[in-house]
Amino acid sequence: MGEANGSEKETRIVFVTVGTTCFDALVRAVDSEEVKEELLKKGYTHLLIQMGHGSYVPTKSCGEDGSLTVDYFTFSPSIVDYLRSASLVISHAGSGSIFETLRLRKPLFVVVNEDLMDNHQSELAEELAERKHLLCARPQMLYQTIAGMILDSLVPYPPGDATPVSKIINSFLGFPDD
Predict the structure, then answer these.
(1) How confident is the model at residue 178, as a pLDDT?
(2) Cα 53–76–146 angle (5° rounding)?
(3) All residues at 6 or more sequence positions from 85 whose CB lies less than 8 Å from its CB, including other chains
């Protein structure tokens, strides 16, 4: 891949999503110069940030000086198209965002929002990271984790099989086994 005709880089998008929450710590961390420079070093060309209800506004950039192109928005009716076009997804630890990204087989980096009261999200993210389905970090460790990330070490998340559950329900309801 690399460069087409020696002049234009292949577009590689990092999509960041905070869901419907306020997660300024994540938005601020990905907007830091060191994180943007590290993403550029790793071959990414665009950074698109879905910032939710946050008050921190990232710095837009056209990328014309060889830097990362940066853009942002607050909400979208669906983020599926953004997820599909991404080369890397950096997400809050919401289960919907995590499983949708894993279903699309996109490399996923989950950042845990430590400001949430009941942080069950961190348990999910840490368990999936332990199983090597995603990378996981806290906002203050984002740069270090990106600098050391090896996406080839990630293992695809196997899709669920509802057959055993449906057999139990069918049996309970008195339907014959197929």
Answers:
(1) 62
(2) 70
(3) 13, 15
pTM of this structure:
0.86
Beta strands in the chain (DSSP E): 3-4, 8-9, 13-17, 46-50, 69-73, 86-91, 108-111, 135-137
Backbone angles phi, psi at 147, to 5 degrees: -60, -35
**Structure-token pair, residue 37:** 């420079």
8, 83, 79: which is closest to 45 by C-alpha? 8
Q: Is 14 exposed, middle or buried (0-12, 13-18, 19+ CB in 10 A)?
A: buried
pLDDT at 56: 97
Who contacts 106 (Cβ-Cβ below 8 Å, separation ≥6)? 83, 84, 86, 87, 88, 89
Low-confidence stretches of the chain (pLDDT beneath 50): 1-7
CB 13 within 8 A of CB 44: yes
Query: Beta-carbon neighbour count of residue 63 at 10 Å?
Result: 15
